[in-house]
Model the fold of this input.
Amino acid sequence: METKKYTIKDIARLAGVSAGTVDRVLHQRGDVSEKSRQKVQQVLDEINYQPNKFAIGLAAKKSYRIVCILPQGFEGDYWSSVKAGIDRAAREMLDYNVTVELLPYRHADEANYREVCHQMTHEEADALLIAPNFRESTLELTRHLDAQQTPYLFVDYNVKEAHPISYIGQESWQSGYLAAKVLMREYQDGDELVLFMTGSKKSPAEIQMQRRLEGFTTYLSEHYSQLPIYDVVLDKENETYNQQVLDDLFNRHPKVALGAAFNSRVHIVGRYLERSGRQLRSILGYDLLPKNVSCLKRGTVEYLIGQRPGLQGYYGILALCDHMVFKQPVPPLKYMPIDLLMKENIDYYFEMHT
Amino acid sequence: METKKYTIKDIARLAGVSAGTVDRVLHQRGDVSEKSRQKVQQVLDEINYQPNKFAIGLAAKKSYRIVCILPQGFEGDYWSSVKAGIDRAAREMLDYNVTVELLPYRHADEANYREVCHQMTHEEADALLIAPNFRESTLELTRHLDAQQTPYLFVDYNVKEAHPISYIGQESWQSGYLAAKVLMREYQDGDELVLFMTGSKKSPAEIQMQRRLEGFTTYLSEHYSQLPIYDVVLDKENETYNQQVLDDLFNRHPKVALGAAFNSRVHIVGRYLERSGRQLRSILGYDLLPKNVSCLKRGTVEYLIGQRPGLQGYYGILALCDHMVFKQPVPPLKYMPIDLLMKENIDYYFEMHT
DNA sequence: CTGTTAGCGCGTTCAA
DNA sequence: TTGAACGCGCTAACAG
Done:
């Protein structure tokens, strides 16, 4: 592969014009005489000119602004991981004059979400990363963006009627199905099962949870159709209440031996068991929050399923940049791996490189 | 996102020196007074300086040559994955005038390995990535490299007495321990166990295998000390022989229900079972070779453990470049995750980004 | 030892 | 319509 490196100066020399003119031809910036244009074009046709990426990057004055609309995260939770991935990508893209800003909304607060979406229709942004929530406000925003030709991308949850350049997410149903298979490996005759949930609020987080549950129960109905299953609804904050509910469960159903939590709060159960001295043979939960991980390491929780929130944020930003800055095609759909973590492999786990 | 871009000029201004001095400190090029060095270092410690890669690429007239000493891989095997990761990193680093060359050796051929190592002491290379094999030749080479101040890095296997800038590998013992726990979840009373091995040759590949086995048997001795275990040694190529050995095993030990292969050739067992119509309740194997993955998808093999060979190669090259080209610190030790794959999550798995 | 300076290749002025 | 000149941030050579 004979690939001499030609520069704009080379081309200018070969065509007998100046570098400025070559640049004008290359970028179709007009103000070039037909004669000059032809001479330059002729040279371009003969050689295989590949502009130096570094020089472009260094000289580029153009800058890009990406806005990220997502739930505000709290220390160590799911959304703070997404944010960490976004931050990381932002750092990598800094050289390309890409700046990334966060526009957080309060989870499950429809008025606030609407307001944030509405605010976006007034702001200038070259691209958006959105973790969508309520449907109507989302569609209102995306219609606006579609009209403006502003590219946007969904993470975590996909809104079907919109036209994002890509959706990056998780296959919740499948992860639930896997969860059931893994957990039920430990089933013994007579065991009973408990599922831990949170009260439904119709938010995407709940929808993901529902899908996990559907996958889970599908597996159960295929293999353990007669299994007694109890549902327990835990509160996000009220510890006393949770304590009561769990006490009640274990008092009433002493044969419960397996448990699964479909949100990221399996640590509530883990801590309860540690405090109360009760035991389950095996518990499975979702998301690698520090609290969950420490339950896993102590052996209170047996399995955690991870779906790489950080990588979602990271890929999201990179995909927007590929589209916007590098004009590269972007896959319209990207699922994250379904990672299965146990006490024995958690120490070696990492979501992203480094 | 508070990530201001600092340039060398900024640092120079903050430290009260000139850009040239900052550059000298960054590149440890010497000829800097201790006082200046400290002032610059202090600034560097406070800010998060990320050199502009475009400028580096543009200004760099220097070119780098990385040589990779590793076993020659064959279509789809472990080493071909490592190589794929290396190639990928090489492509990314091409713009920085980094070229990567492969110097393959024949697996388990000591004379050949010695020869290759010896050859390296005569060649010019700016950095080496080594998948070490026989100890003496390796140390001979690394002593030479140490003397020349040529940076090198180990992947896959670590040689304790050498001084690589980093070791990137896998925790084989731990993965074996995990393997046992996972597999034994399916144990039922009276089950017997079979372990599939290859003849030992004292090469690092065998050592990794041994460590996996040690981890595995440690778990067994902790939890199932009375379990009947049969060892079967399979041949790499001789299918007829393998058929006989396996026939023999299953005829003699009809209660064998669980199996584990500690090299990447679990597909031999999988295919045998498919052909012969025999069954095991559960088989675990290592490495995501296409043949193994297809057994997993068909359900013949229940678990595969992956240790990201491709990522090892990829990281290896990037780490050498970070050290050599970008003067970034490199973590001296990096373990790969221990991935647990099943039929239900294999479709969503990927080793590296994209 | 240290500051200054000349590029690297391209985009973008600004004069001509 | 064109050419020339400047600067992006960094490296390396050179002059003090």
